[in-house]
Amino acid sequence: MTVWQPATQEIDPVLEAVQHAARATIAPSASIGTPAPSASGVREVQIVDGRVLRIQLSAQPMQQVQRGVHMAVIYAVSGNAVVDRAGFRVVGQAVLDIATQAFLDVDCRLEPVGTVTL
Fold first, then answer.
1. Which pLDDT score is estimated for 53?
2. What is the pLDDT of residue 48?
């Protein structure tokens, strides 16, 4: 069993917002300050530092796994994000406990793709 430990470094506010958007994409009821997407599927989120994140994500269930006594689903997460004029490709995965609907893990990476003209 894993024991909780405090973070050893500050969480990047962009990555934190992306992880919240991933949760909201998989389970809309898990939204943490993440608005619903527009008709085009893009979410606009104001980050704690005042910048605006525009993000479009999709999530696909990949496999069921046993985690302790519970079954969980691993989702592949992918999409695109823009902060200021910096563009990113988003890749990652999320693990959702089937019984409790709690996220056991959300891990996303931002891969820079260059400047985006809006």
1. 95
2. 87
In order of 3, 31, 81, 104, 109, the CA distances from 100 in angstroms are 19, 16, 29, 10, 26
Question: Domain extents for the chain?
Answer: 13-115
Bridge partners for 23 per DSSP: none
DSSP secondary structure string for all residues of 56-97: EEEEEEEEEEEETTEEEEEEEEEEEEEETTEEEEEEEEEEEE
Query: What is the per-residue pLDDT across 32-82, written as a single tens digit (0 to 9) for each?
Result: 667 778 888 899 999 988 999 999 999 999 999 998 888 999 999 999 999
Q: Which of 15, 108, 95 is nearest to 53 (CA)?
A: 15
Two tokens at 5?
């430990």
Print burial letters for 18-35: b (CB count within 10 Å at least 16), e (below 16).
bbbbbbbbbbeebeeebe
Report strand pairing: 70-83 vs 43-46: unpaired
pTM over 0.70: yes
State the residue for tokens 């599927």: 41
